[in-house]
Amino acid sequence: MEILFWILIAILIYSYIGYPLLIFCLSWVIKTVVRKKEDHHLSYEPHVTLFVSAFNEINYVHQKVANSFELDYPKDKLQIVWITDGSTDGTENELKKYSEIKVYHENERKGKVNAINRGMQFVDTPIVVFSDANSMLNKNCIKAIVHEFKDKTTGCVAGEKRIIPYAKDNAVSSGENLYWKYESLIKQCESNINSTIGAVGELFAIRTELFSVIENDTILDDFVISLGIAQKGFKIKYTSKAFAEERASESINEELKRKNRIGYGAFQTLFRLTGLLNPFQNPFLSFQYISHKVIRWTVIPFSLPLIFILNVFLLFTSSQKELFLMFFLIQTIFYLFVIIGYFLQTKRTKFKIIFTPYYIFIMNYSLIIGFIRYIKKTQSVNWERSKRG
Known about the structure:
By secondary structure, the chain is of the alpha/beta class. 50% of the residues lie in helices and 14% in strands.
C-alpha cells in the first residue's frame, strides 16, 4: 500500500511539475549554449491557404471574414477556403457574398474530419493554415507561421491558443485561461528542444504535401494530423507570435461537453497512434508524448481518488502518521477548494487562482467520463459547439 502510494505521488509530481521543469531547463540550455543563427533577411512568402471548416457559424461569419482580410500577408499569396458541412443557418450563403473567398458546401452533415478530408482536395498551396470560425487571429500570424517553415525539417507549426480574459472571471474562464498559459510554456519549451506535442485546431499549419487522410470518426483531428506528421520524421514547431483568441465556455456544463469529448478523443488517439509509444522508432518524441500526454490521460485521472483512499488507510496503519497526516491535509484543502469552486462556479472574482483546483478536477473527471464513453463507443463524431461567453 505504502509503495503504491509513493509511486502514484511520484507520477503525479512528475506529470505536473517534473516534466515541465525538465524541459524548461533543457530549453534554457539549448537557447543559451546552442544559439541557432537565423537569416532574417531571407524573404520567404510562399502561397498559403487559410482553411476554415464550419457548421452553423452564422454568428461568427462576418467577424471571422473581416479578421481574415486584416491579416498582414500579400493578398495575392493568401487564399481563403471555407468548407461548410450541413449548415442549416445560411452560413454558406453569407460567405458567398465575399468574392475573395472560396466556399465548398455540402448539404449532409458528416462531421469536421470529413470536411477536412473533403476540403483538402481543393488546397493547391504548399502551406495550409487551419483555423476555427469562432477564433480570431492576430494580424501577423501568417508571417510568423511561415517563418517557421524556412526550416525544411519543420512539417507542422502550432500557434498559441489564448483565452480572452474578463476583469472578473468565473470558474471556467479563469481555469481555462491559467491552464493554457501553463500549456503554452510547455509547448514552447518542447519546440525549442525537439517537437511540440500536438497542435490545437484554433490555429495550426502544415506542409500540404504531408497531409494524409484521417479516419472520419476521429475526434482530435488537430492532434492526429500534427502528430502524424511528427511520426513521418518532421518537426512540430510552436510560435507564440501566431495566436488565436476566443472566449471561454459560457458555463461549466458547456465546458464539460467539450472536455468529455476531448477525453474520449484522448483514448481514441492513444489506441491509434501506437507508433508513438515505441521508443525505438523515435526515442525523444516518444518520451515527450508519454510524459506530456499519455500519463495525464491514463494514470493521473484514476490516481487522484486512489491516492486519497490510500492516504486515509495509511493514516491509520502506517508508523509515519505525521507524514501521511500532512498529505491528507494537503489533499483535503485541495478538495475543499474544488467544492468551493463548484458552489462559486458562476460567480466572478479577481482572485482567479481559487478556481484552479476545480478546473483541474473537472479536467481529470472528464477523462474518466471520456474513457467510459470510449469503452462504450457512445461519442458522436458530430460536434455540438459549446456556448462561449
